[in-house]
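Title: Comparing notes on inverse folding

I've been comparing how different people in this forum approach sequence design from structure. To keep things fair, I'm posting one structure and asking everyone to reply with a full sequence. Here's the target:
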């Protein structure tokens, strides 16, 4: 989790705005947002690569309860070209309906649950 999502004050003031990274704030200060970067997808191969990145973005934010991800798309030279705001809960559906469907959120969660269940059978301290 990179930052606490906040709003810009409606009235500019003479005092400086104190935008602090999440490590300097309480987790209860407001909604959270994850900031990510990805290369701008230009081909089918790039789209698949981006979908695999989305899986990592989604699972990390899902497990931490971060509701929003902002992805900055960059050129091959590393220059920011555009931004996309994603709701974490909608990423699996987005991949399924608009992407190549390279992964399924339910399969990922079910696999992880089963894996952890098996680990707890082998490691008695999981109780």
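Reply #1:
Here's my take.
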């Amino acid at each position: 989790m990179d930052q606490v999502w906040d709003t810009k004050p409606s009235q500019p003031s003479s005092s400086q705005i104190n935008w602090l990274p999440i490590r300097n704030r309480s987790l209860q200060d407001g909604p959270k947002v994850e900031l990510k970067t990805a290369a701008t997808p230009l081909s089918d191969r790039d789209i698949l690569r981006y979908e695999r990145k989305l899986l990592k973005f989604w699972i990390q934010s899902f497990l931490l309860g971060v509701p929003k991800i902002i992805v900055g798309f960059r050129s091959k030279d590393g220059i920011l070209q555009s931004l996309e705001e994603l709701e974490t809960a909608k990423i699996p559906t987005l991949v399924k309906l608009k992407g190549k469907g390279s992964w399924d959120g339910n399969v990922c969660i079910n696999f992880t649950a089963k894996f952890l269940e098996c680990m707890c059978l082998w490691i008695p301290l999981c109780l």
